[in-house]
Each structure stands twice: as structure tokens, then as C-alpha cells.
Design a protein that fits this description.
Order of helices and strands: EEEEEEEEEEEHHHEEEEEHHHEEEEEE
Strand order of the largest sheet: 9-8-15-5-4-18-21-20
Strand content: 35-45%
Number of strands: 22
Distance between the termini: 38 Å
Number of helices: 6
Shape: flat
Largest sheet: 8 strands, mixed
Structural class: mainly beta
Helix content: 10-25%
Radius of gyration: 22 Å
Oligomer: single chain
């Protein structure tokens, strides 16, 4: 088995999970998944990752790490969990797991079975300039999602006019009453940071989980009526590469969706992206790595890249590796009839 990272491999005829449909661009009935990953530690030659157990489902991502300090003295490292940057000029296209304007994936963590807290750092950038203080001074939320988005429309008109003049705000239509709606234009960076001390010569177990950010499309470019369209050729090839799509997988989609031009079987996509490469900051490779991907229902199709993939249940598949160094991120595509 290759241990340098995931290699192209098909998961049989009846697999499929996560990805993004662009027809040819992101349509109004689609949303893009956010690429979230695991914990990031200060690079260290003293602490090894003994094992990592990663499970990805359409609802939850959970990870269980076991670390060991290989020195005779305690080692303290900075631990961070970085959320994806949110470009608010494109926020309507993203899939947010929760309406929390700070912890928008519902991140939680434990160390040796006990919940721990992070210090939360969030800043707003416009053209590379930090505008966080300016936004706080005028009463604008840094991440206006969910109920927070209404606060932009509730700001005084003079404030909104100033924000538009400064490039912080743009009008985006009107509500049913004809009142103007606004979108922010800045980018939000959010990270959870803490210090973790690893005592000498004993394992430390770190667990975390968060809500999966699902990309959603109410059709799939892999449906025969679309993928044979010459205009879709490059997008279909992108899917083949990103999710290791094989002909047997396409045949399974054809069986589900027939061959008509219209999506009469109401096939849809769900897409997941996971950042694996941040797990390479340790003394040596991950000694024991295990990845489980659960597609949710037996009749869904799932495809992703990997080597020596084993089916472990009607919905779940597992990849195991020894001395594993991640050098490629993971994309998962699920196709089916979602109700």
C-alpha cells in the first residue's frame, strides 16, 4: 500500500459522497462546501502522533488523536483549529453548519475525555487590511450570517452609506417589502487557539467533532444527460480527478437516473472537503491512521480517492495505513435521491 498519501482508486460501482456541481457556474440552487480540517499544532520534533481516527459523515466530522511526548520533560505547544476563510461577497453560495456567527461549524474538543476551551480569534479583512475595529465601532457584526445578517439592514442609513463608500457593503436586492438588502464584502478569518502541555512518556488523547459543511446541488453534472454535453467536459474531468470517479460509478448513476436529458429521478449531490495536509507537523509520520467515510444511507452512491478501501457496513468504508504522511486533501462525493 502507498503510504505517502491518497492515490486514485475507485470504491466499486455503488459509491458516492460530497463535491460541488457547477453548471457551469455555481447555480442559485447550489451551495459550496467549506473545506475544514483537523487540529494544527506548532511544528514539533518532540511530540509524535501515535494514531489518528477520522470519521466523516454527512452530519458530523469526528477525530480522535493519540499523541506522545518522546522527551523526558513536559512539552507545551500552541494548538489551533482554523475555520475556513469566509469571503462575504460570496457568502450566499456557502453552506454553513450553524447560525453561530463565530463557531459556525459547532466545534467542540476534549483532552483525555474532558471538555476544554479555546481562545477565539476572529478578524475581518478588506483588501488585506484589518477592518475589525472599524466594524465593531459602527455596530456591524464581523460575520453576518443567520439573524446577524439582518443587523446590516438595521444600521442607520448614514452608516450604510458610509460603508458602501468605503467598499464594506454592497446592495443585494430587496426584501418582499421593497426594503434594500445588503451584503458585506470583507473576508472573515476565525481560529480557536490554546496551549497544550504534553507530559513526558505518556499518551494524550485529543478528540474533536464539528458539524459537516455540505455542498449541495439539486442535480449532478455526472448525470448522463449532462456529462455527455460537450460544454460539461472539463467539469466532468474535474470530478473524475477530485473524487476518483470510475466508469462503474457513472454506470451506477445511469441506473439510478436513467438517460434522459431532464433530471426526472431527482438526483442530487452532497459534497464534503477535508483538509488532511495539516496533520503533517509531527515527529515522523502518523504511526496508525484510520479513516472511515459513512455515506448515510445504503442506496446513496459515494466516491472518493484512497487505497485499499474496505467496506465495513452497508453505508461505511474504511482506509487504514501505517506510518502515514498526508500530502493531499480529501474530497468526497455523494449522489442519490435526498428527501
Amino acid at each position: 500500500m502507498e503510504h505517502a498519501g491518497f492515490v486514485r482508486h475507485a470504491v466499486g460501482a455503488a459509491l458516492l459522497l460530497g463535491g460541488a456541481v457547477f453548471l457551469p457556474a455555481l447555480a442559485n440552487d447550489s451551495s459550496a462546501e467549506l473545506a475544514v480540517g483537523g487540529l494544527v499544532f506548532t511544528r514539533s520534533a518532540d511530540v509524535s502522533m501515535e494514531s489518528e481516527e477520522l470519521k466523516i459523515t454527512p452530519d458530523i466530522v469526528s477525530v480522535r488523536y493519540r499523541f506522545r511526548n518522546q522527551t523526558p520533560n513536559p512539552v507545551t505547544l500552541t494548538v489551533a483549529f482554523s475555520l475556513p476563510d469566509i469571503d462575504l461577497s460570496e457568502a450566499e453560495n456557502f453552506s454553513f453548519s450553524t447560525n453561530d456567527p463565530i463557531n459556525f461549524v459547532g466545534f467542540e474538543t476534549k483532552v483525555d475525555g474532558k471538555p476544554v476551551k479555546f481562545t477565539i480569534h476572529q478578524q475581518a479583512l478588506l483588501g488585506g487590511v484589518d477592518v475589525s475595529a472599524k466594524l465593531r465601532d459602527i455596530g456591524a457584526p464581523l460575520l453576518p450570517i443567520g439573524a446577524q445578517q439582518l443587523k446590516l439592514s438595521e444600521l442607520p442609513q448614514t452608516t450604510r452609506d458610509l460603508m458602501i463608500a468605503q467598499g464594506l457593503l454592497q446592495q443585494s436586492g430587496a426584501n418582499e417589502k421593497g426594503q434594500p438588502l445588503y451584503d458585506a464584502t470583507w473576508t472573515v478569518k476565525t481560529s480557536f487557539v490554546r496551549q497544550q502541555t504534553f507530559p513526558p512518556n505518556r499518551p494524550v488523547v485529543v478528540e474533536h467533532h464539528y458539524r459537516t459543511s455540505l455542498g449541495v446541488s439539486f442535480d449532478t453534472v455526472l448525470r448522463k444527460g449532462l456529462r455527455l454535453n460537450k460544454a460539461m467536459e472539463s467539469e466532468v474531468q474535474r470530478y473524475r480527478t477530485l473524487y476518483c470517479i470510475q466508469d462503474s460509478f457513472l454506470a451506477a448513476i445511469d441506473k439510478l437516473g436513467a438517460a434522459s436529458d431532464a433530471n426526472i429521478e431527482n438526483l442530487q449531490e452532497r459534497r464534503i472537503r477535508y483538509v488532511l495536509k495539516t496533520g503533517a507537523n509531527w515527529a515522523g509520520p502518523i504511526k496508525d491512521f484510520k479513516l472511515v467515510i459513512d455515506k448515510g444511507k445504503p442506496d446513496y452512491l459515494v466516491s472518493f480517492c484512497g487505497d485499499n478501501i474496505a467496506r465495513i457496513s452497508p453505508t461505511a468504508f474504511q482506509i487504514s495505513a501505517k506510518n502515514y504522511t498526508p500530502n493531499k486533501d480529501l474530497g468526497v462525493l455523494i449522489v442519490g435521491r435526498f428527501h
